[in-house]
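About this split. The held-out portion is used to measure sequence recovery: a designer receives only the structure tokens and must propose an amino acid at every position. Recovery is the fraction of positions where the proposal matches the reference. Here is one held-out target exactly as it appears in the evaluation file.
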């Protein structure tokens, strides 16, 4: 199958939005000085400039992001920070809006960014209607973390640690003291804690908490369970503990998160105007 496009005429007039994508040919594009120079010139006559995934590298290569915050796919954030030390690279958000420049973390987060651009231009109602029509999350704010992708990438190569992680995932509804997890890995507590941090990049306790939050997010997005029920299923001893942990991790209450991100329920699309959730904030 061939996907073709006509060459873009450079033109001389103003542009509304310059959108720069990434892709597997990014390394070649970064060496294409005429392309990089054109991006710099085009940006100067654009109302705003946006990028998807590795497209932020091209903006940085053109010097457009110096002194600004920007993001890219979490897997390449370190490389971007090393290559462009004058850019404040933030690996956490799904997209970052700094002045006229908007950079998104990956392909799917480019959709979130696009909805934010629609909202900025035409209001929340049209952005909401667009998201509903495409059966997307209503809106994920730019500050939303790339956390779920990072968590998936933390599965360890070391078999005992990976086995412990899999056991954690199967038992989130239970108390998970680190001593019990170490016993499941057939390791001493001290050695387990040391090897786990080396392999996963965080302590066992922090990993358990983040995994509980990840499961809670999934349930908030895809079910109509009450906040208390979700807290119980994710292993939080009390709803209050869940609220504190969730807020500390994501900067939102569970109720706020559900209101922003839940679109599909077992009964279909949710009508926000008829929403009857009375769970505590």
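Reference sequence for scoring:
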């Amino acid at each position: 199958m061939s996907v073709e496009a006509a060459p873009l005429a450079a033109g001389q007039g103003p542009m509304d939005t310059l959108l720069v994508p990434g892709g597997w040919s990014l390394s070649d594009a970064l060496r294409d000085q005429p392309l990089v120079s054109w991006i710099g010139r085009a940006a100067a006559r654009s109302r705003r400039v946006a990028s998807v995934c590795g497209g932020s590298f091209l903006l940085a290569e053109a010097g457009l992001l110096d002194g600004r915050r920007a993001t890219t796919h979490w897997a390449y954030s370190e490389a971007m920070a090393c290559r462009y030390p004058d850019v404040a690279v933030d690996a956490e958000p799904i997209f970052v809006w700094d002045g006229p420049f908007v950079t998104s973390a990956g392909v799917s987060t480019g959709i979130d960014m696009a909805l934010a651009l629609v909202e900025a231009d035409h209001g929340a109602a049209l952005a909401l209607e667009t998201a509903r029509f495409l059966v997307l999350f209503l809106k994920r704010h730019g500050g939303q973390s790339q956390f779920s992708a990072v968590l998936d990438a933390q599965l360890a190569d070391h078999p005992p640690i990976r086995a412990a992680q899999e056991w954690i995932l199967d038992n989130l509804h239970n108390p998970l003291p680190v001593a019990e997890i170490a016993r499941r890995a057939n390791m001493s507590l001290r050695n387990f804690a040391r090897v786990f941090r080396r392999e996963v990049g965080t302590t066992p306790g922090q990993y358990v908490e983040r995994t509980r939050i990840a499961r809670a997010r999934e349930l908030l997005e895809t079910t109509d369970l009450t906040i208390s029920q979700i807290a119980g299923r994710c292993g939080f001893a009390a709803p209050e503990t869940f609220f504190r942990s969730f807020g500390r991790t994501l900067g939102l209450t569970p109720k706020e998160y559900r209101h922003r991100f839940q679109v599909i329920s077992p009964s279909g699309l949710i009508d926000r105007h008829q929403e009857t959730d009375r769970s505590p904030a």
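Annotator remark: The two ends are 50 Å apart (CA to CA).
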